[in-house]
Amino acid sequence: MKIWVVTGDYPSPEFPGHGLFVRDQVEALRAGGHVVHVLHAMPPSLRPLANEARPRVRALAARLPGRRQDDHDLAAAVPPVVVAGPDAPEAARPTGPLGRARALVEATARGAVGTARVLHDQVGNTVAVSKLLADMIRLAGDDGTPDVVHAHNVFPAGIAAGQWAVGRGIPYVVTEHISAYLRHQYSAVELAAAIRVLDRASAVIAVSAAQAEALPIPTDRVTVVPNIVPIADFRLRDAQARTSGAVLSVGWLTPNKRMDLVLRAYAELPDDLRTWHPLRIVGAGPERDRLVELAKTLHLDPAVVVGRLPREGVVQEMAAAALVVSASGVETFGVSLIEALAAGVPFVATDSGGPRDIAGPDLGDIVESDDPLILAEAMTVKLRTPATVASDEKRRAVAEDRYGPAAVAGHLERVYRDLMA
Description:
By secondary structure, the chain is α/β, with parallel strands linked by helices.
């Protein structure tokens, strides 16, 4: 089968960590004997500059009178204000001329930021769609048309795939990975564009049931196919990790990952567990300095915030872990949790969406609370539950059967063949 994979995210020398989930699918499909061409165009973006500026903005906001900083979200540095209306809670209503003026300025600023974000993304997506269309026309001239076009995410890849494939009678598939649907971040204009792309698609794939429910089309039109996790990259954890391994959390150090909640929950563990199971937070991002300061405030060693590690470093961390913890606010999938299973490590995760599909008896538990004490209780139960080689091997087998390259590639092949039947 000849497959074109169209994507805005794909590993490159400049961005080696982008789109790894797409690359994994491409390699698995090629290993299955398919001819796969990748067409990639990343929308130009000013977000890297904004991310660099975010810690400075946070620090400035914290010094302004009447402002507070929330532990989880930079956006909450500005208190929510209802400018007018009888339904506004008394405590939320701005009082006095200065309060009302500040509320109006803040509401206007939030609206302006939202509009600017939409316009910024529209410009970037337009540039990427133009490049992808040109590349598809060129590739068709050189190599002929494909049997199926598989786009990863509506913006920009789904738009380009739909524009090229529909008029030529070639089926196109869209897999949606982006958390913006679960986080209600898209504007009405963006949702309308997404609906047009998804409605015309021959098949729509979501990487989890939670993501399928969040998409703006009927759920019965969506097939759940998880991302691939390269299980073979990981090895079963060391024997001593079951009794004295680390409590590990891996992810970008951003507000949504809520590593501050991991720190607070860990600080609530019984003394003996903290003695036997050191905390390790692995990742890079704009929250790092704040997390280091929070660790000090909680009387934890600031070195628990390890920073970014190469792939082999993450493999080593998993092999030395007693428990993996995810406290994200929203996750469409949950790669670190499956990596944990691949190493035979159980997990505890907050109810962020995607992890619901991964959790199960002897695998991992979902905590339906953002309370550090309740998260700590779940972590305590897992850490005090005896682990065996057999339980570790079971977790790894489940990971391979559900999320290994052969399993996911087989599922994709069935989707493609159904379209061509």
